[in-house]
Every structure is written in structure tokens, then in C-alpha cells.
Write a structure and sequence with these properties.
Layout lengths: L1 H12 L33 H15 L5 H14 L7 H9 L3 H7 L8 H4 L10 H15 L3 H18 L8 H8 L5 H8 L8 H13 L3 H11 L6
Length: 234
């Protein structure tokens, strides 16, 4: 799962927020150099995969699941392999921060974007839905302590949980998330299919992810993400 996510991350990194005219051969699946982010070479995964690895390592360590240990693991993974893909300000923050205490004291943790969702997949492998939601909320709150930031992360981990425990077919996924999560996503799914592609909006981020997953193979997902552009490495 993490390998496939890393492949998609590395593929999409070359197209993130690239204008349509900059996307050549839209049906050809190849790693490309992003026209602006020269530090991320073709085929390199980005911050999303690195932070997903941090989450996975913390799960495997069996250490207590709390904000301190999440922050410490983020720092450990970055400092052993500094790489591009992070927002400029956050990259500088990770470079300068030397401890989890300093991380939690100085981080501006109010982002409402989808970064916390992109690193949450491994949490979905936990056997209990309540634990999936709890652990996902804690890790998201470290950097994305907002309604959209946390909710999009929960939706992401629940998608993995659905498939890991074989709750049903791809087409049943949206309905299952709606039922498992107090019905909150019902309007999100249909509103996005009404054509309101606002990438800052939680509903659209979740719906795009669900539609890509429901579409089947990784090749099809990459092609669709490439055409959507936006945060295509997610």
C-alpha cells in the first residue's frame, strides 16, 4: 500500500499546480521534472510519503500514540532524509526545529488543507473504527488542527480501513463511509459531483480521493490525478 502511494506521489509531483498547457502527453504515464520545484527530481517521492512513513513507523514502534510522539517521528524522518515537497515555511521549520517539544510549541497547527489526510493511510489498518478515528484525529491535530484538516484525514484512513477489512466493493465505499461516520459525508459526495471543484474545500478533496479509488487500478488513478492537477501528488 505504501509503495503504491509513493509511486503515485512521485508521479503526481511533476504535475502539481502545473497549468494545463504545461501538461504534455496527458495519456502518457512517465515521471517528469516539475517546472518550478527543481529539488524534486523525476521519480522522487515527496513530503506526503515521508510523513506517511513517519506515521507507519510510530504505529510499528508500539509507543504511546500522542502528539509528542507524532511530532518526534516527523522530525526524525525528515532529519535523516531532508527532501523537497514540503511547503517552504514548513520545510524551514523542520530544518530549524530540534525537538518534539519545540515542534509543538512553535508549530502553527491551524492548516485546513489536506496534508494530514495524505499521511493517514496506515492508520486505517487498525482493526477498530473508533481507534482509527482517534489516532487519525491526534496525528492530524499536530499540524492541521481544523475541521477540514482533521475530517479529510479521517476520511482518508477510513477508506483504507474499508478495503483492508473487505467491507464491500469499490462502488459501495462512499455509502459505507457515510454510514460509518454519522452521515456527515453524504452532502460532500454529491455536491462535488455537481461540479464544484474547489480544492480548498474538504468535501471536494474527499470526493476526488473516493472517485479515484473507485476507479480501480493505479494507472487509472495516476492518469486522473494528472488531469485534475492541483495537489496531484496527493
Amino acid at each position: 500500500m505504501l509503495l503504491e502511494a509513493a509511486i503515485g506521489d512521485a508521479f503526481g509531483a511533476g504535475y502539481e499546480y502545473v497549468p494545463h498547457k504545461g501538461v504534455h502527453n496527458p495519456d502518457k504515464l512517465v515521471y517528469v521534472q516539475h517546472p518550478r520545484h527543481r529539488d524534486t527530481r523525476p521519480g522522487m517521492y515527496t513530503d506526503d510519503t515521508q510523513m506517511a512513513l513517519a506515521i507507519s513507523e510510530l504505529l510499528l514502534s508500539e509507543n504511546e500514540w500522542n502528539a509528542y510522539n507524532v511530532a518526534e517521528r516527523f522530525l526524525t524522518c525528515f532529519q535523516r532524509d531532508p527532501r523537497g515537497g514540503y511547503a517552504k515555511g514548513f520545510h524551514g521549520f523542520l530544518t530549524e526545529t530540534k525537538s518534539a517539544d519545540a515542534f509543538l510549541a512553535n508549530i502553527r497547527a491551524n492548516s485546513d488543507k489536506s496534508g494530514a489526510a495524505m499521511r493517514a493511510s496506515a492508520i486505517g489498518l487498525l482493526p477498530d473504527i473508533k481507534q482509527v478515528v482517534e489516532y487519525t484525529s491526534i496525528q492530524a491535530s499536530v499540524t492541521h488542527n481544523s475541521t477540514d484538516g482533521i475530517n479529510s484525514a479521517i476520511a482518508s484512513s477510513l477508506m483504507v480501513h474499508y478495503f483492508a477489512y473487505a467491507f464491500g466493493t469499490r462502488k459501495r465505499l462512499p455509502h459505507w463511509i457515510w454510514r460509518a461516520w454519522n452521515g456527515w459525508l453524504e452532502c460532500c459526495w454529491w455536491n462535488c459531483y455537481g461540479g464544484n471543484w474547489d480544492f480548498r474545500n474538504f468535501a471536494c478533496r474527499v470526493s476526488i480521493c473516493v472517485s479515484l479509488v473507485c476507479g480501480g487500478c493505479i494507472r487509472r488513478c495516476c492518469n486522473r490525478g494528472k488531469r485534475v492537477r492541483g495537489e496531484s501528488d496527493h
